[in-house]
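quick one, 279 residues, struct below
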Amino acid sequence: MSEELPALYVVPTPLGHLGDMTQRAIEVLRQVAWVAAEDTRHSGPLLRHYGCTARLLAAHQHNEQAAAQQVIARLANGESVALVVDAGTPAVSDPGARLVARVRAAGYRVVPLPGPCAAIVALSAAGLDDPHFLFYGFLPNRAGQRAEALRGLLHLPYALVFYEAPHRILDTVAALADAFGPTRSVVLARELTKVFESIHVCPLAEAHDWLLADANRQRGEFVLLVSGAVSLDDGREGERVLKLLLDDGLAVSQASRLAHAITAVGKKSLYELALRLRA
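---
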């Protein structure tokens, strides 16, 4: 890094477990002159833990334009800057995108580093069948706007990835069930990489009651993943094949597995349908 021209380094930081910081990220933080941080009070102790002695400047959602000018001034002075947020990757449902755009427009290099991202961590452990996903991030706070946003996602054949805070989790899960119906699978990934990490999978119809059953389940930062919509044609073909297999006396698990292999409709949705048909 010391041989390169001044640059803005976009540095992911751990979601919780300090061991998840990459060696390259640590080296960058130790060498830059400045660190632009979402919350300097939060990032200061973290940076000291890794032996970073850079000076801090605030770069959050309310001052990104002013912070960008400060960063550009440091770069013009020949000093490299690292951009960090409280946890995870900058500019992914966190501040940073506007600052990066202004630095790039000013003609300076932006160097992204790989590292922790809550959406990707949750997806890797979700076990959803969907071959594609759509990252949405945080839904609107107001109920009407949230419902409108979800209606626009209703028919997309992708796993849907949302972030949510603990004080909104019950309302959001209820809104998901209202918008998408009771049978789609939802993954509730909470406190990822931290001591009380939990990943729970259930139909949307059960998610609200599962959260209410234990107040601890409502604590911490959430990633919510909802299985994608099955197209009408695919759904009909999957149901047709499934009924034939069940009529031939196959068990629910075997019938849904074979119907998935034949039609490529999601195994989870076929299994849930098989249970309803058998009942």
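The mean pLDDT is 93.
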